[in-house]
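Researcher: Please translate sequence to structure tokens.
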Amino acid sequence: MRTLERTPEQRELGAAVRSVLARHPGAAAWAPLTGRVGAAALAVPEEYGGLGCGSAEVAVVMDALGGALSPVPYLGSAVLTVGALVAAGDAHACARLLPDLAEGAAAGALAWAERGSWEPSALRTRAVRDPARGWLLTGAKEYVLPGSGAGVPEVVLVFARSAAGEGPGEGGGGGALSLFRLTGPPAAWRIRSTMDPSRPLAELALDRTPAALVGAEGDGERILARVRDLGVTALAAEQVGAAARALEVTVGYAKERVQFGRPIGSFQAVKHRLADMYAAVENARGLALAAAAADAAPDPAAAAGSACGEAYSWVAGEMIQLHGGIGITWEHEAHRFFKRAHGAARLFGGPAAHRERLAARLDAALGPTGAR
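Model: Translation complete:
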């Protein structure tokens, strides 16, 4: 039976990450996290220079990053990009790209969402094979988690529809979904400001941009499903870490803020709200730990994605309310948690989309006679 308790090694990893984040605030933490702690190497197989760990160790890092609201590109590079390469099973691409990603010598980005949606049915980017130039991609991608700077990351992976397979494809997209790596500069790469300044998102435009196929043509649906579960599981851990820190800050404020001659934390109404926040955080923590322990299996990942996003958003809102007038000011720390909460809740489809995926799999498992 799997335990949801972290191992001593995982607790040491979390302490090491938090120590780096305390000494190197902001984006400056990326170099020591990858160089000294080896955080970017956790999910990389040992044969490609990594540590061969799983989602449980990645979740430890994401939890710590969430508590610090860190802007480092761990989710986009060490989780999504690495996860896509490993899931594709392309030994040549893995041997060429994973060692640099593991060391932090390169950063990666996975271009996935289109037309305001993370669903595979929304993807319209086309891949055509030119006899002289090889694969060429044309399309536009949104919500790309960028690398460690404003420029195009060293490794950019793109999901696109190739000519493999028959029929119009799910949702009328046409062609089968495949994974590609850009081998030439895109037509445009724009970093867009978002509600959460600690997590900018990029837009990618492709106009017959050269690319190389990663994995088997037509295998993109399977790869994308795995990457989505990895991303949702990692994000759930980040959301729990951030929610726990928001609760900690709010409890500290409730002990210090005096009203009517006593700390506001001594009032029963405030105690009840803090207790509800604690219950929400711990419930979300259990689901996040279960998803990580299951190595981002589809059902636990969807359950964690559904609960953790909503719990963090609610806790962040309560944080602002319990800070009173000062919490409403845009510059207060509470708004940083609020912005991250509502930005993160939209990544990879959001809680409602995760519940729909979970319900669809449950319906498929039960079959037509399941309800009876």
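Researcher: Any highlights?
Model: Residues 220-256 form the longest helix (37 residues).
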